[in-house]
Every structure is written in C-alpha cells, then in structure tokens.
Amino acid sequence: LSICYHGSRLVQALAGFKDRTVLMNSLHGLSSADLLTLGTDRMGSHALQMLVTTASDKGRGKILRKLEELYVQLACSSCGSRLLEAVWNSANVNQRQSIAEKL
C-alpha cells in the first residue's frame, strides 16, 4: 500500500461531502494490514482520522470494530497514536470502554 500526499488530501476533502458512501465502502473493504499501514503512515493517518471523525455513529462503530485488533500497534506509532487520540475523542462511552479494554 502506497500513500501519497495528494491522495491523502483528496480523501480528506471527499470526507467533507454529505454522501460518503463510496468512500466508506472502500474503507470497510481494506484489510487489517492495510488499515495498519494507513493508520501509521504520516499522510495516511490524517486521511483515516478525517474519515473516523466525520463518520456517523454507525459508520464509526464499523470502523472501530475493524481497528480493534490494531489499537496497541497504533498506540506504539507516533502517527498512529495521534489517530488513536482522535478516535478516542470522537468515540462514545461504550466505544471508549472497548478501546481501553483492548489497550
């Protein structure tokens, strides 16, 4: 998985639109390894952060379930820890409890 600056900025801009269905479906189609690469990359983490923080509660829940097994690895990365902090700040109480249990 190769992440470029312009691709990251494009995803961040697309995340601001009202209909993000195609974008979110693509995100849900990524493997755990791809999500880890995206989340720990300097540019990719910004794109993933934007998708997580702008998602609906239902969409955020789906993303967090995919990220559950990656919390420790994200926390050990400088870019991933910033992403994890944004996830924490946008999560509801039940999601925060799940994150804390995994960590």
From TrEMBL:
Keywords annotated in UniProt: Repeat
Xref: SMART domains: Pumilio
ATP-binding keyword on record: no
Xref: PROSITE patterns: PUM (PS50302)
Keyword Repeat assigned: yes
Superkingdom field: Eukaryota
Segments crossing the lipid bilayer: none
Family matches, as Gene3D superfamilies: Leucine-rich Repeat Variant
Ranges occupied by Pumilio repeats: 29-65
Pfam families associated with the record: PUF_NOP9
InterPro entries on file: ARM-like, ARM-type_fold, NOP9, Pumilio_RNA-bd_rpt
Name of the protein this chain belongs to: PUM-HD domain-containing protein
